[in-house]
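Reviewers of the previous submission asked for a worked example of the structure-prediction workflow described in the proposal, so we include one complete record here. The input consisted solely of the amino acid sequence. No template or homolog information was supplied to the procedure at any stage.
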Amino acid sequence: MTPLLDIKGLDIRAGDKPLVSDLSLSIRPGERIGLIGESGSGKSMTAMAATGLLPPSITVAGSITLDGQQVVGATDRVMNRLRGVAAAVVFQEPLTALDPLMKIGRQIAEPVRRRLERDGGKATKEAVQREVRDLIDKVALPQPDRIINSYPHEVSGGQRQRVAIAMALACRPKLLIADEPTTALDVTTQAEILKLLDQLVRETGMALLFISHDLPVVAQVVERVLVLKNGIAVEEGLVGSVFGKPQHNYTRTLVEAARLFDEALGATGS
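From that input alone, the workflow returned the following structure tokens.
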């Protein structure tokens, strides 16, 4: 099966500083991959490179093929056609990704309208509103009328993240990139978002690239993981194998830290 995302020999640099070095990663349609490592390991840089979102000051070399299209060196026009269709991104803090001056209903409506026009459908007000309602139901947001007429700051962090997921789903992407989507949330809300993502990926057949430093979180939603350390891939394999019998010292350190953290939580009754 042809990979949906195929990264080969990726190098990302900021001036003379290497951020990601010789990274290769492929994701097939419907596959769920976890990209893990500490802050600064190059996880988000890789995701931004895959969607052409890196700033001009960052240089990229190597090959990134997204849905058959070469991303490295691609024009904005080409990338605008790919974003949302081939891949959509859910960022860590939706409050910074959402427009604070636009009501949530309008923000979800924009990608819905673009997708209807792209598919040759009629983007009538009624059709768009129907799709917006459907997306709100799909991500299990309560009180749809209130959500539609609220500004981002008027809803909770968990609800904002669900809105961001709804917007990502609006264009029906083939690949969903979730970049630390639960880090800023409390434990209960985090579990709800993970369950939602798992359900949506299963129902739609999307591929998933899930980026996180939290091993237990990653283990809940992906099948295979790639471990990054200082921008270099040090280990890759099935979740059970990598987390159960890690081969690299860095992965062992991550696994042990996650175990000790879980034990500490258990001891405090959290």
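Strands lie at 5-14, 17-27, 32-36, 58-66, 69-70, 87-90, 175-179, 207-212, 224-229, 232-238. We consider this example representative of the routine output the project will generate in years two and three.
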